[in-house]
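Sharing a chain and its predicted structure for anyone who wants a worked example. Both blocks are below, sequence first, tokens second.
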Amino acid sequence: MSLNYLLQMGDNALILGHRLGEWCGHAPELEIDMALTNLALDFTGQARTIYQQVAVLEGQGRTEDDLAYLRDAWEFRNVLLVEQPNGDFAHTIVRQCLYDCFNYLLYEALCSSRDEWMVAFASKSIKEIAYHQRFSTEWMLRLGDGTETSHQKMQAALNNLWIYAGELVSPNQVDIEMCEKGFGPDLDRIRPLYFEKLHELIAKATLTSPSVEWMQQGGKEGKHSEHLGHLLAEMQFLQRAYPGLEW
């Protein structure tokens, strides 16, 4: 199993979990606040499990905390979508929905991986991921087909974030190698399913699919937006200010 492949998965979960955690105490309603916090905990838990496996496989004595808090931005392999700022609630929901629709297809395929650890992890995690998808899908429909204001905000968010969706289903060399070995799915096969699902959902939410075909790339290779640096500066501050600190 490729360490970079695991890091792609773990970094996506960690960074998106942190973004969702930023809503704690700031969400529109208490119920939504609790829901987003629970999503954040799910993603953080998944990231921790993946990082633990990375640490075991590389055998260099690092821990999940080292991987989360002591790597620089260019060492992270998350896609650009998950590091985008929360913005308003519409932006958070669109970002989440774009990611969840892909993530479910990914983990569904990983349940048939040739790697035993991956099968066990994916089979356990997909229950949480199914809930994530249901949550973001329901809010996508509710806000897209809601008031004039909510509709406009959702369309604006979709227009802004659409260019990051393609990276999720664009295979890099690591994805290709894992697919050839039977450890990961073929993203070229997932891509049409992903966009078909998105277009269907967008239409049902009375929104319009952006016509832009060019997509941002680079996150999987460590080429990130300025947003990741600011996020890591906040997330990693305590560990870097007090090296080796333990609770």
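Comments welcome. Residues 69 and 236 are 5 Å apart (CA to CA).
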